[in-house]
Amino acid sequence: MLLDKIEELLKEVSALTAQNAGDVEQLRLKYLSKKGEINALMSEFRNVAADQKKAVGMKINELKQLAQNRINELKDQLETSEAQSDDIDLTRTAYPISLGTRHPLTLVKNEIIDIFARMGFTLYQGPEIDDDQHVFTMLNFAADHPARDMQDTFFIERSNTMDVTKNVLLRSHTSNDEAHYMSTHKPPIRVLCPGRVYRNEAISARAHCFFHQVEGLYVDRNVSFTDLKQVLLTFAREMFGAGTKIRLRPSYFPFTEPSAEMDISCNICGGEGCGFCKHTGWVEILGCGMVDPHDLEACGIDSSVYTGYAFGMGVERIANLKYRVSDLRLFSENDTRFLREFEGA
C-alpha cells in the first residue's frame, strides 16, 4: 500500500508546474516541509515489514530527490523567464515618444517676463478664484459697474446680494494680483502679474472665454507718466524690434487716471498700412495709465506721498503679432500639427 502511494506521488511530482514564485513556495511546503507529504511517509515507514524496508526506503529517497530537483528546476525556469522578459506597461504612451516643446503662449509670456525683469520688475502670481473686493471694489469699480454683470463675469458664489464685495468669481483680469500685493507690501513696488483670466464671451477667431494676461505695477515717490511711456517704449522695441514706434491714445479704465491705449507700428507692414492693421499702420497691444489715488488709498498706501503706473496686455494678442496666428482658438485646441510649428522657437 505504501509503495502504491509513493508511485502516485512520483507521478504527481514529475508533473508539477508553477506560474510564479509563490506557487513554487507552496509546492516546497506541500512536499518537503516538516508537515509535508514526504515527511508523512517517513512516519508510515516505521510500520513497514523488515524485508520490505530497503525497497520502500529507496523509493522514498527517490521521491524526495525528485521533488527537490523538480522544485529547483521550476524556480530556475521562473527566474530565467523574468530576466529575459520585458515589463510591458499598457498605460504608457506608445513608443517612440516624440520630444515636445514649449507652448507658444509660454514662449511669449516668458519673453515678456524676461524683458520686464531686466527693468527691475519682480514676479507675483495671485489666485484665479478671488473675491469681488480684490477683483473690482479695491480697483475703483462702482457697485453697479457692468463688469460685475452676469453677462460679463463668471460668478461662483453670490452669498450676499446686498454686499457685492462678498461675491466669489473667476478673475476677469490679473489686476486682482496688484490689489493683493499693494495690500501686503509697502512702496517702492515694481511687480509683474501674469496669469489666466476669464470672461463670459462668445468664442471666435478673435475672442475666447479664457485668455492670459500680464499686468505690471510700479508705485513709488514721484512716478510720472513719462516713466510709464519710456518703460513701454523699451518693452515694444525689445519685443518687436528696435525700429518699433509707439503711440498712446487717451482712454478710460476705472483703476487708472489718466488712462491710455498703446499702439505699436505694425510689425508686418512697417507702419505703411496693410490688411492686418486695417491700413492704419498701427496695432493696439495694451492698456495703461497712472494708478488712481482711490486704488492706492484702498490698499493702504498714502496717495499724497506715492504715485504709480500700471499696464496690462493679453499674451494671446502679443503672440498673434509675433507669430501672425490668425485664429485665437488654435492656442487652446492642443492640435499637435499647430504646436509643432513652434519647435524651433
TrEMBL record:
The keyword Protein biosynthesis applies. Keywords: Aminoacyl-tRNA synthetase, ATP-binding, Coiled coil, Cytoplasm, Ligase, Magnesium, Metal-binding, Nucleotide-binding, Protein biosynthesis. Tetramer of two alpha and two beta subunits. SUPFAM superfamilies: Class II aaRS and biotin synthetases, tRNA-binding arm. One of its GO terms (cellular component) is cytoplasm. Residues 60-91 form a coiled coil. It is found in: Cytoplasm. Binds 2 magnesium ions per tetramer. GO terms for molecular function: ATP binding; magnesium ion binding; phenylalanine-tRNA ligase activity; tRNA binding. Its main location: cytoplasm. It comes from the Bacteria. Pfam families: Phe_tRNA-synt_N (PF02912), tRNA-synt_2d (PF01409). This is Phenylalanine--tRNA ligase alpha subunit. The gene is pheS. The keyword Nucleotide-binding applies. Residues 108-341 form the Aminoacyl-transfer RNA synthetases class-II family profile domain. One of its GO terms (biological process) is phenylalanyl-tRNA aminoacylation.
